[in-house]
TrEMBL record:
Domain Bulb-type lectin as annotated: residue spans: 33-156
PANTHER family per UniProt: BULB-TYPE LECTIN DOMAIN-CONTAINING PROTEIN, NON-SPECIFIC SERINE_THREONINE PROTEIN KINASE
Domain of life: Eukaryota
TM region(s), chain numbering: none
Protein name: Bulb-type lectin domain-containing protein
Keyword vocabulary terms for this entry: Disulfide bond, Glycoprotein, Signal
């Protein structure tokens, strides 16, 4: 289902509803693991799955591409949208069957190619290699220390998809920004031209760019909806949240988890 407020905006942010229930999940296969540890890496033909098997993470090649990536997608659904990609800038060769996702000696989650070169890493200050990576039922990949404290999460590094409880926004004090950036093409998850973010003005609004050119804006947030989207009726209000803290310098937009839905930025210009 495409959300109606997007339908009338003529822009590239397409929101799709996908309802999921644990009772529909398939039986566990031998190629499935539930965490990545120093002694249990993720290798080719394996997937890391969330507890209720809603999401899974593994190696993939989009649309027959000769390049390989590590990503997260919905499990057991007909809509096989990849919602997050680790190495979108540094693909593996399709013939590299020895690549693996490991917990390194420094405690970081790392993607190694067949020659043991680090292609991607969480790159945090981990205290030991007793850390583990788990995939949560919200689609969040989390690196935990030995006491299950969160050290890193994929929700802090979104790609093109906004999952429930994932935030996009800006911290003007630190300069940190979280954007959704489209894929370059259907078989190329590297950063494309379209970017969706949140402005730091008061009141804030969603803003999309095509390269450096403004492409679309939602209108300012009136504490319940965006005033530039007249078709945004009450049926949307329970899911959309935009929180601005002037003292902390933060502005974030997110959707709550009560609806198992997601939004993504497409690389294709469409008049929806």
């Amino acid at each position: 289902m495409v959300l109606e407020f997007v339908h009338h905006c003529s822009y590239d942010c397409v929101f799709v509803y996908s309802l999921l229930v644990c009772s529909l999940f398939q039986a566990l296969q031998s190629s499935t693991i539930y965490n990545i540890t120093a002694s249990r890496p993720l290798i080719q033909n394996q997937t890391l799955v969330s507890p209720c098997k809603i999401f899974e993470l593994g190696f993939f090649g989009p649309n027959g591409s000769e390049k390989q990536y590590v990503g997260i997608w919905y499990k057991n659904t007909t809509f096989s949208k990849v919602v997050w990609v680790a190495n979108r800038d540094k693909p593996l060769g399709h013939k590299d069957q020895s690549a693996s996702l490991i917990i390194g000696g420094d405690g970081n989650l790392k993607l190694l190619d067949g020659r043991k070169n680090a292609i991607w890493s969480t790159n945090v200050m981990a205290k030991s290699n007793y850390s583990a990576a788990v995939l949560l039922d919200f689609g969040n990949l989390v690196l935990q220390d030995g006491n299950a404290n969160k050290m890193w999460e994929s929700f802090d590094e979104p790609t093109d998809t906004l999952l429930p409880n994932m935030k996009i926004g800006v911290n003007v004090k630190t300069g940190k920004k979280k954007y959704l950036i489209s894929w370059k093409g259907e078989d190329d998850p590297s950063p494309g031209s379209f970017v969706l973010g949140v402005t730091s003005e008061t009141p804030p609004q969603l803003f999309a760019w095509n390269g450096s050119s403004p492409y679309w804006r939602s209108g300012q947030w009136d504490k319940s909806k965006f005033n530039g989207i007249p078709t945004m009726s009450n049926k949307y209000l329970s899911g959309h949240q935009l929180v601005q803290n002037i003292n902390q310098g933060t502005t974030y937009y997110f959707r709550n988890y009560y609806n198992n839905s997601f939004g993504y930025v497409s690389s294709h210009r469409k008049d929806l």
